[in-house]
Amino acid sequence: MLLISIILPCYNEELAIKGTYKELSSIMQQMGNDYEFIFVDDGSKDATFNILRELSLQDNCVRYIQFSRNFGKEAALLAGLQRAKGQYIVVMDVDLQDPPSLIPQMFEAVASGEYDCAGTRRITRAGEPPIRSLFARMFYSLMTKFTDIEIVDGARDFRLMSRPYVDAVLSLPERNRFSKGIFPWVGFKTKWFEYENIQRSTGETKWSFGKLFLYSLDGIIAFSSKPMAIASILGILLFLSSLFLIGFIILRKAFWGDPVAGWASTICIILFCSGIQLFTAGILGQYISKIYIEVKKRPYFIIKEEK
Ligand code: UDP
Ligand code: MG
Description:
Layout: E1 3-10, H1 17-31, E2 34-41, H2 48-58, E3 62-67, H3 73-83, E4 88-91, H4 103-111, E5 117-122, H5 130-146, E6 155-162, H6 163-170, H7 179-186, E7 190-195, H8 209-223, H9 226-256, H10 263-296, E8 303-306
Parallel strand pairs: 1-2, 1-4, 2-3, 5-7
Antiparallel strand pairs: 3-8, 4-6, 5-6
Helix pairs in contact: 5-8, 9-10
Bound molecules: uridine-5'-diphosphate and magnesium ion (MG).
């Protein structure tokens, strides 16, 4: 019998879970296939886990995984994907920002065999601070320039995937998991569904501006070595310009004599060069710190309880 797994990462979502569960259940029942919900409690500090346990006692379709602490949404997604038993797998937020009503259409697209994945993208960013939208746009265009993968602007993590697609995603062993890049990296054929941005049903976003900024840097580092190439190019440009300046100073001395001057400009040059050096050392440091995390081979998450 055909089984659909739905993975829902939850972090402090006590207000959202029940409403989402009800809406999803009614849609899945209308569809008529077997289904399982896998709620991943990512170290919530509120009543999230109690609600999940209660739901699992009432409904056999509800499974849960409880992490020993907050490991982040990427780890929660991975845990859910590893445990999903279905031939079709959905991942979505628990705050109803991802409209469950799209699932039947997404399922049709993938079940027909024409597509391996149904992705969603929001075409508006209504209700979002303008500065955040601006940085998001910059991030998407940087990603497209810096990497070979195409990250669709506004793509959400809300997807329905076939089993082979999920197995491909799971075959990537890296610790620095950046799903927005991993999904397009594995390839296959994705059909996109578009919708207007929906504001959170309850609670508030877990992503501060700073967190998002660091997350996007992680993404660039995980999928591109171009920042290191930029560091080398900066070095070469500075070297060439110093050759030009040396030539200029020799000529000036030879033809016009040279009164000693230029203390201020010397200091400026020293500051400029040491700034560039620190900047490029920082880029290298970012890659080294990621290598350090990979070689430690720590588990992606630790599970306290699951059902
Ligand atoms: N989430 C999580 N771990 C975290 C942060 C978020 O599992 O450390 C979950 C959260 O409960 C929600 C989803 O990831 O179901 C998306 O989070 P959020 O709605 O805060 O992000 P946004 O929609 O604002 O991008
Ligand atoms: Mg959300």
